[in-house]
Design a protein that fits this description.
The complex is a heterodimer.
Chain A: H1 2-21, E1 23-27, H2 30-40, E2 44-48, H3 63-70, E3 74-77, H4 87-94, E4 106-108, H5 141-158, H6 163-188, E5 195-198, H7 204-210, E6 213-217, H8 228-240, E7 245-249, H9 254-264, E8 268-271, H10 284-299
Helix pairs in contact in A: 2-5, 3-4, 5-6, 6-10, 8-9
Chain B: H1 2-14, H2 16-19, H3 23-58, E1 68-80, E2 105-108, E3 111-118, E4 123-131, E5 137-146, E6 153-161, H4 182-188, E7 193-202, E8 208-216, E9 233-244, E10 248-269, E11 275-295, E12 305-324, E13 334-355, E14 358-374, H5 375-378, E15 397-408, E16 411-421, E17 428-440
Antiparallel strand pairs in B: 1-2, 1-3, 1-17, 3-4, 4-5, 5-6, 6-7, 7-8, 8-9, 9-10, 10-11, 11-12, 12-13, 13-14, 14-15, 15-16, 16-17
The chains are: A alpha/beta, B mainly beta.
């Protein structure tokens, strides 16, 4: 009998412990995991569902994700259909009422931003278009600032006991962030009109922010893998209007970029895309420092 | 720079006076241009604001509440050595489902129409209607699912694909081969979709642990409609899963199904070729063990990935069989005797995406006819083993290979070859070309 009690007590402890410790945050992408870490510090236990080396469009509703979503207090995702292939299943299968769409435990970054590249025509003959606009919003640091404000008030609402702590951290973060943006914009002025070839439309916000020029894309259409025909056309186009670099995200297949780089005689720049994509991109500040440094190296 | 100088030179040539314009004029022009610029910026700003207003307004119309709609189109072109109309899995009681290979030549598969949306904050609704090539509409799934129970619980009700096994819950258009593995064909009529309730509970553990139980009308094979109050079929399952490093994800499970059949009929012929109707009444019990392992380098499935999947089935039936040849030669009339089967089957398959868009796969499946104790034959009530040709001593097996090409996430073309030994003493060589297209809302696929 006593043994049973001990076992039961242990079981209760195991089950109850993670819930009591801190606000459980399930971040769909590394950038939101990093932002939550900045804003919540040690008051939250953060699980990041995907890595910078995974194509955000090709994530599956793995059992481990369902298990983590089961106990989360807050789910922080991009929205705008970026997670449409897996998140709806994770949400319904988790059996977690708190993080369902519309609940306070469900946070979508894109809701708080104005999206670019909203398609005027919705037709899949144009590729895997996102009806709400380009969802790769985090590469414009001003967006991170806006999301930070919204996310910190959500944290304060969910965990009222620590509301003051979240507000203070958010204030400090935003000050540092605005300073960093000013610095990046100064450095980034050298990137203005830099013609670059991209892989997918996942760097558009960055390009838009620092006014780089997109000279072409390796994907013929969003979500359609690069093929020989399209790459040939792109190469011919680059002969007429040269670009300075092929920029690919860490998760993109390196081969099409290398193929083009060799023939067009322009370097490949592999950018982190999100936190963890390169050794230097250990947090949000590192992400932009590193991305800028890599691009500035070819702009000179 | 050079270009700008050229333009300046061109302007100077075209308007010789301009080059000698006085400073006052220049500053006036500059001022005007500045004003124009400001004016345009204001106008652009106004336009942007209007666009934003239109965008946000669009979400307010009635149709914005329409469910997400998607449509699956599929079809085949098949060449088979044996006649698909006479397909049987010898050694096993026919499961009544459409389990044979597709029709020879061109054949339209089932077109699936999927509608799904949140009902309110508490429920989600989901409908899968199949438009069959025979011009009929079948309700494959129509269920509600709770959103707000919490504590890891989800309740599903209506008609749904049962949670037993691994492949059973996967929709046909997401299968890695054109048809179901042999144990699914022989023991579940292809797949089990049932009318009933399902309760699932996900444990609050860092790894995936899930339990589920289902109560159903038990109408689908191996059960039948019994016109009886209460629950006629039940199943339970447990799943365990997780990740091994960033590159591997897995899930394993066990399931149990129990259901009852009353006058479950199948047609056969006696030893002289006369028509016979057999009907089974009794209970059916099934155990399934399933496992799946997925690999993608660094968890990034975009370029290459591999999927290994296998299931083992054990299937027992206990009851009575009634032999009736009154519709044929009427030699014995109606004869009833005890009937028990204890059979098993398994399959294993691997699918490898070796480059973007391209996948190859191989599947081996096998059934063991195990013990079939037919009281009618053993107690000498009249009909002999030769009067039950479908139940002949045979352990079917099959080798299947496929290659598919997916131009995008929404389209897939497949060629599949199978050497099918489902029938006794015959190898059916099947070549099937298949297309699967998915239109409309981007559905999420199960792991």
């Amino acid at each position: 009998m006593t043994r049973l009690r001990i076992v039961l007590a242990a079981a209760v402890l195991i089950v109850a412990a993670p819930a009591a410790a801190a606000l459980g945050i399930f971040a769909c992408e590394p950038e939101w995991g990093a932002l939550a870490r900045e804003l919540a510090g040690d008051r939250a236990s953060i699980y990041v569902a995907t890595t910078a080396l995974q194509d955000p469009h090709r994530i599956e509703a793995r059992p481990s994700l369902i298990a983590r979503a089961r106990s989360a207090d807050l789910i922080v995702c991009t929205g705008a259909d970026l997670e449409v292939g897996w998140l709806p299943l994770v949400l319904t299968q988790s059996g977690n009422a708190r993080i369902q769409v519309g609940q306070p435990g469900y946070f979508e970054a894109a809701r708080h931003l104005a999206l670019i590249e909203v398609p005027a025509r919705l037709d899949r003959s144009l590729g895997d278009v996102h009806p709400a606009g380009n969802p790769h919003v985090h590469l414009d640091p001003r967006n991170i600032g806006k999301v930070a404000e919204a996310l910190s008030s959500r944290l304060a609402a969910l965990d009222a006991a620590n509301a003051g702590y979240y507000r203070e951290r958010s204030k400090q973060f935003l000050v540092r962030w605005q300073e960093a943006i000013a610095r990046w914009e100064m450095q980034g002025a050298a990137l203005k009109d830099l013609p670059v070839v991209v892989y997918h439309r996942d760097l558009s916000y960055f390009i838009n922010w620092l006014k780089l020029r997109e000279a072409g894309a390796l994907e013929p259409k969003p979500g359609i893998p690069p093929g020989a025909g399209h790459l040939g056309e792109l190469l011919a186009q680059l002969k007429r209007q040269p670009a300075k670099a092929v920029v690919r995200a860490a998760y993109n297949d390196p081969r099409p970029a290398e193929w083009l780089s060799e023939r067009a005689k322009i370097p490949v720049v592999t950018v982190a895309y999100t936190v963890g994509g390169t050794e230097q991109a250990t947090d949000l500040f590192g992400l932009f420092d590193d991305t800028l440094a890599r691009l500035l190296a070819v702009a000179r | 720079m050079f270009k700008r100088n050229l333009t300046a030179a061109a302007v100077a040539l075209a308007f010789p006076g301009a080059a000698f314009a006085q400073d006052a004029d220049l500053s006036k022009v500059r001022e005007e241009m500045k004003q124009m610029k400001g004016d345009y910026e204001q106008r652009i700003q106004a336009l942007e604001n209007r666009a934003k207003a239109v965008e946000s307004g669009a979400g307010k119309s009635e149709s914005a509440f329409n469910p997400a709609v998607s449509l699956i189109l599929q079809g085949t072109y098949a060449t088979t050595k044996e006649d698909p109309n006479t397909y049987q899995i010898t050694g096993f009681v026919p499961s009544g489902g459409e389990v044979g290979p597709p029709k020879r030549s061109f054949d339209l598969g089932e077109s699936e129409l999927v509608l799904s949306a949140s009902v309110d904050p508490y429920f989600r609704g989901h409908l899968v209607a199949a438009l069959t090539p025979e011009n009929e509409v079948e309700v494959e799934e129509a269920y509600f699912q709770t959103l707000a129970l919490g504590k890891g619980f989800t309740l599903k009700g209506g008609r749904f694909l049962s949670g037993i096994g691994y492949q059973n819950e996967i929709h046909q258009h997401a299968w890695d081969f054109q048809d179901a593995p042999l144990p699914y064909k022989a023991f579940l009529g292809g797949r089990l979709n049932q009318d009933g309730l399902q309760l699932r509970w996900v444990a609050p553990t860092p790894f995936f642990l899930e339990f589920g139980a289902e109560a159903s009308s038990g109408e689908q094979f191996p059960g039948t409609d019994r016109n009886k109050n209460g629950v006629n079929g039940g199943s339970a399952f447990a799943h365990l899963g997780g990740d091994i490093g960033p590159s591997y994800a897995w899930r394993a499970g066990v399931s149990y199904l129990r259901t009852t059949a009353e006058n479950r009929v199948y047609d056969d012929v006696d030893s002289t070729g006369g028509a016979v109707t057999n009907s089974f009444t009794g209970t059916a019990k099934m155990w399934i063990a399933d496992a799946i392992l997925k690999w993608a380098p660094g968890g990034n499935a975009a370029r290459t990935n591999f999927k290994l999947q296998g299931e083992y089935f054990q299937f027992k039936q206990d009851g009575t069989l009634t032999y009736d040849d009154s519709g044929g030669n009427a030699v014995f009339g109606t004869v009833t005797g005890p009937f028990n089967t204890d059979q098993s089957g398994w399959y294993a398959q691997g699918v490898w995406q070796f480059m973007p868009r391209w996948r190859v796969g191989y599947r081996y499946d096998q059934l063991s006819d195990g013990t079939v104790s037919n009281g009618i034959v053993s107690s000498g009530l009249g009909p002999v083993a030769a009067d039950f040709p479908v139940l002949g001593n045979h352990s079917p097996s099959r080798n299947t290979a496929m290659i598919d090409w997916s131009p995008s996430e929404f389209s897939r073309l497949r060629v599949q070859y199978a050497a099918d030994k489902s029938r006794m003493g015959v190898t059916d060589n099947q070549i099937i070309v298949q297309y699967i297209l998915s239109l409309g809302a981007h559905g999420a696929h199960k792991f």
